[in-house]
Amino acid sequence: MRNLALAMVVLTTITACKNENELKKSNVIAVTYPETKTVDTVDTYFGEQVKDPYRWLEDDRSEETGAWVKAQNEVTANYLEQIPYRQELKERLEEIWNYEKVGAPFIEGDYTYYYKNDGLQNQSVIYRKKTGEDNEEVFLDPNTFSKDGTISLGGLNFSKSGKLAAYAISEGGSDWRKVIVMDVESKKQIEDTIVDVKFSGISWKNNEGFYYSSYDKPKGSELSAKTDQHKLFYHKLGTSQKQDQLIYGGTEAQKHRYVSGSVTEDGNYLFIYPRNSTSGTKLLMQDLSKPNSKMITILDTSDSDTGVIENVGSKLYLITNRNAPNQKVVTVDASNPNPENWKDFIPETENVLRASTGSGYVFASYMVDAVSKVMQYDYDGKLVREIKLPGVGSAGGFGGKKEDAIVYYSFSNYITPSTIYTLDPKTGNSEVYIKPGIKFNADDFESKQVFYTSKDGTKVPMIISYKKGVELNGKNPTILYSYGGFNISMTPSFSIANAVWMEQGGIYAVPNIRGGGEYGKKWHDAGTKLEKQNVFDDFIAAAEYLIDNKYTSSDYLAIRGGSNGGLLVGAVMTQRPDLVKVAIPAVGVLDMLRYHTFTSGAGWAYDYGTSEDNKEMFDYLKGYSPIHNVKEGVEYPATMITTGDHDDRVVPAHSFKFAAELQSKQTGTNPTLIRIETDAGHGAGTPVSKTIEQYADVFGFTLYNMGYKVLPNKTKSNIKG
């Protein structure tokens, strides 16, 4: 086997053009890729041998992998630097991004806190004022954690009195966290840092200490080694982490991949949620008001999702999809909380329910074809009113403490920047609290919802957004984006980056495909395991709708998605390489035979199943796994795979191996690049500066491979007037 350093010298061209003039004429940049060595790794599944020639790229700590990453990034950077308007896109992104962004305020102790970003700060800053006063001060500035913004804030929680705070930090985008406890008055750290925390909230027990979750540090790489026994701990202030009490997860019987703990606002109850997958949770309770009280099991099976949203004394309010696929709210007394004693509080309807509490009310937020509708109830179950929203879109928030006089909520859609409103729950009156001063005129754009038919006859909604006056001539640059998994709903929301795309005459389309939560558990389940192909079929049908109705054509269509959405893009581009011009799979789950062997990947089995389950599941996964379905002699779309070298949720090996397969088998002149962000993870906490660079590269790559030599709004316009 040749040394990688030697292999890097040997370059293989994929360009079939005859001369440089032909390259310029066809908007093709000649690309040479580093040769990626192959190894003779073979796995056997149910008697079938499957080759894995790029297994060595799974070792994120090896010098060989590091050299490969560096070489690939050099090739990608060289390509992107030749796109003539990439800098122009970056400058416009910076210009439109540069406005003050302020979050909804919240009261803790004597202070009112809020997040604020002056415009282009890498991380938002937490400010505060003495409640009722005007003088603001910086409470916590994550931009001081590191020079380049790669250490980010991962959570901030206050004790019951508001005199203490615990905040988590993430380094390089990793899911591993450190927790720091501070005195809020002096803003000084008061004890040693808690380390090795992962997939955890911070829930205070009054002012005495807090609950958090983590795994034992894995053997091997902490960024890719498997973690499958989550544990809930209690940290008592003034003691060392070594003395933290193990609350749940320390035995084989209590072994779960995810365990979280949450204390009620009054500090009286601890609720524990053990789960083995991203869907389905058990539920346990402990009465903290009684010393040495025993843990009570409310639900001992993982066939539903149930969570406690509020309590009034011993009366508990739970939201559940147990025998209610679209969810409902029930009440029960803590003295006997078993399901047979549950009473319907807000019954299930035909629309999916989310619930929150604030100011002594329960707010029921429904999705009606992915659009928000909000109802307000009192604690006795009486409907108070329907909240009048500012328009058609997504409303979020409606949460707070019982004593809060005002409830805050946000509203946005694909063409309306997020605006924060105050709601007086006694009168139902809403007022604008903060309207963003963004340089974007929403009146120049429009969104419309359409319904199209998927392969099996299922009706699927899609929202299409664009600049008014776009001519439906089949030549509009279009991004089709979705997710399609894990009960996650694609509801309308504003994106600064997508605003720049639409300014260029671009169309942005988001279908609400199966696998998501838009129509409840049944919609989710219809896109899982042996039904996963429905997700890809829905996405393909969305593309065909856009083409058939002249919004765009295959030459001007790009598909984009991240994480499970990266799998969506990888599967569709390998199943229908003729359908689109550009594919942008981001941090994708792309090796469906091995995804469950990395970090917490086994927890995704509810959606995917695993290659070890049985032969039928193995065959099904292998049939759509993007890495295993790249074929010789096929011209795949122009592809730019994006990932982060510190992604320990969907490890970058997925993207590395997919890039290697495409580069070795791609036919024709379409480029296959991989853009690997350094000191970055799955996405959360990414500095604004890096985010802007990523979008400039993605949009530049997309437009260039659609044939644009200058930006669309500078060509003979496809915008009337």
From TrEMBL:
The keyword tRNA-binding does not apply. Keywords: Hydrolase, Periplasm, Protease, Serine protease, Signal. Coiled coil: none annotated. It is found in: Periplasm. InterPro entries: AB_hydrolase_fold, Pept_S9_AS, Pept_S9A_N, Peptidase_S9_cat, Peptidase_S9A, Prolyl_oligopep/macrocyclase. One of its GO terms (cellular component) is cytosol. It comes from the Bacteria. Its main location: periplasm. Its EC number is 3.4.21.26. Residues 34-433 form the Peptidase S9A N-terminal domain. It catalyses: Hydrolysis of Pro-|-Xaa >> Ala-|-Xaa in oligopeptides. It is an enzyme of class 3 (hydrolase). GO terms for biological process: proteolysis. Cleaves peptide bonds on the C-terminal side of prolyl residues within peptides that are up to approximately 30 amino acids long. Has an absolute requirement for an X-Pro bond in the trans configuration immediately preceding the Pro-Y scissible bond. Belongs to the peptidase S9A family. This is prolyl oligopeptidase. It comes from Gelidibacter gilvus.
